[in-house]
Amino acid sequence: LDIGDWKGISISNDGPSVIMIDWTNTAQGADRIHPESQGTIHFEWLPDTVGCFHMNDQGVEGVLDCAKLPRRLRIFAVANNRLTGELELPALPIGIEKFSSSENFFSGTVDLTRLPVKLEMLGIVQNKLYGTVCFTKLPSGLQVLGIGKNAFSGTIDLTQLPPVMNQLHVNSNNFHGTLNLSMLPPAMAHLSLEENRFEGTVDLLHLPENLRDLYLEGNRLTGDINLHALPERLDILTLQKNSFDGTLTMGKLPGGMRVLNILENSLSKDVQLVDLSEDDKVVKWIKTQ
After folding, report:
1. Are 148 and 289 within one domain?
2. Nearest alpha-carbon partner for 165 in 181, 147, 186
3. Whole-model pTM?
4. Each residue of 247-277: pLDDT tens digit?
5. Is the CB of residue 223 less than 8 Å from the CB of residue 246?
6. What domain range is 82 assigned to?
7. Contact predicate 215/188, CB 8 Å
8. How many helices (H) and strands (E) are present in the chain, helices listed first?
9. Which of 98, 129, 140, 288 has CB atoms 3.0–4.6 Å from 150's, for a disulfide?
């Protein structure tokens, strides 16, 4: 069987070179199960000419050595498998733009300070990674960063993120310390900080205008909750299961807001209403709680 006839293989027009491999499981619901015993792959045998490699939701085993991936690789997506090894991210091909290895069994620490300069998306969610991470030296073009559901620890600095970043997911780790949300990138739309051990007060008055989802539940945040100047595009704000113990200040909520949860805190009974009338829906909402 000629390699050009293999399922999921794309050949270049100007010669017999493999330029793309797509072995993603396209069965309905494949992304919601975790298949096992589906064979082993040796990434070091991938052709040097491959620019895109997709193998999501297959349950395949294997050890990934980032330094042995094809040097022309631009996209590498292997989420929801049973891959192991350590992620030596600085050893990735210099031209890689998207790297997704979420829902595997990678372990060890990761270095985010020497990522390939062209990287736009990095997803390493739900592995067995640990240690501290640095967000102050990320590639300037990085738009999406997902490191949630691991065992990372330490503090994080959100004041020097790339200006084009629109998604950051650090949920379900062991991060601690205070949060400064006043200098987030203007492009930030989805921010997941839930289920960590962040503490102290949090400023919700200087969020970026494009922010749509902000998840803060399940931390140890304290002090007041001031909601009178939320971004107009904000759709979801979760603050439940913290230790807020001050005053709740509310104003007109964003017109399209679907979820606002402040339950399971220790707020005082004092509620300040800003620029609201007795007929405003926010006032009516407060009176029913």
Report:
1. yes
2. 186
3. 0.91
4. 999 888 898 899 999 999 998 766 666 665 5
5. yes
6. 1-121
7. no
8. 1, 23
9. 129
